[in-house]
Write a structure and sequence with these properties.
Elements (H helix, E strand, L loop, with lengths): L1 H6 L6 E5 L2 H10 L6 E5 L11 E6 L13 H4 E12 L8 E2 L2 E2 L1 H7 L4 E9 L2 E8 L3
Parallel strand pairs: 1-2, 3-4
Antiparallel strand pairs: 4-8, 5-6, 7-8
The chain binds S-adenosylmethionine (SAM).
The site of S-adenosylmethionine has 12 residues, from strand 1.
């Protein structure tokens, strides 16, 4: 999150949700004097109260791997971008995970409201970047 804060233009709002109480408190203290930064303690779903966003980084809950996926139509402005990280690189189509259809990856790559692609960051790591289709 620090890179987002340091790289943003003046006035751009940053909201982050962290479920670990100690971590959330430490991060909130770290950014206490930094304007337009809000650190929320709780489940990722709290982010909906602050939506819609131009950019949403899903790096805790909401990635659809375990539990419900974030809803881009609720959480993003049209043409807003969502990033879902921590995938192994795509090796076949349709994609498999542990020998089964990779439902999380398919959810994002075939989401009707998104234009999505996968970006390989390392031999064993990839991320999905998707833009909400402008209506
Ligand atoms: C990869 S770290 C990213 C931390 C931080 N957002 C950053 O950008 O540096 C993932 C964080 O998501 C938190 N997390 C995992 N599941 C979560 C959930 N369901 N709701 C809120 N936070 C969650 C973890 O506690 C962990 O601190």
């Amino acid at each position: 999150m620090a890179w987002l804060i340091s790289g943003r233009r003046t006035g751009v709002r940053v909201v982050s949700v962290e479920r670990d109480a100690h971590r959330a408190e430490q991060v909130a203290q770290l950014f206490t004097d930094v304007p337009d930064v809000e650190i929320l303690h709780g489940d990722w779903t709290l982010i909906a109260e602050h939506a819609p966003f131009d950019l949403l980084i899903v790096d805790g809950g909401g990635n659809g791997k375990q539990g419900p996926a974030a809803n881009p139509e609720q959480l993003l402005h049209p043409a807003g971008t969502i990033v879902i990280d921590d995938f192994t690189p795509l090796k076949e189509w349709p994609p498999l995970h542990a020998g089964q259809p990779d439902q999380a990856r398919l959810h994002w790559l075939e989401h009707p409201a998104l234009l999505a692609t996968e970006v390989r960051l390392a031999p064993d790591l990839s991320t999905i970047v998707a833009t909400r289709r402008p209506s």
